[in-house]
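Appendix B, example 12.
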Amino acid sequence: MTFATRLLVRDELIGFAKSKAMLVLWLVLPVLSLLGYFLLPAEAFDRGAGVPPLSATTFMAFVISSISGTVAALLISVDIVSEKNRKVYELYVIRPIRPEAIIWAKFLSVFACVTVGCVCALLIGITADYFRGQPLTGGLIYDAFKANVAMVFVIALATAAGAFIGVISKQIVVAVLLCLYGAQNLAIIPMIPVYFGFPEKFWHVMVIATVITLLIQLGAGVMFRRAQY
């Protein structure tokens, strides 16, 4: 990574971290997590004989990842479309930065900001659950670990999808609609085995989600490099 690229990543990270949308997300997610843990029992849903119950941790990770995944996709796609419309990328022609680096910088920045907020929110909820009398057993810790891992992969997948949508879209309205009805549904994929109680398939799906995320992000970078601004 060149010095110019590192500066670009740093600038994007600071910009997204200070954005109003991100600040609201960092405030709303902990509140949502606390409410969820106080309202839900330790085992939230009994899904029938032979199927492990859906714990509060897994359920809240599903809710938080769904919300944050949509927000991440919207943030990066709207930002890319907005900068394209303002002819911002024409200025990068004279700078020693590969076009793909711009997309990767935005991906890493949004992914990092949203992930930190979500993981902190979920840990706050788990801590509150502990202080209200729920013991931290080995099973609960492993369940929380898997829930956090799945949530991170959901955010990464949604962010990559949002970057791709931002590159191919020319209008903000189109990007928003594609994120709401495309990226949001795509981001649910890694959570499906957890939701239906198939822990033996969990890590396989995480690997598949990683491959899909990288392919989408690489595709976004290639299309952005070939675009004319």
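Residues 3-226 form one domain. The chain has one domain: 3-226.
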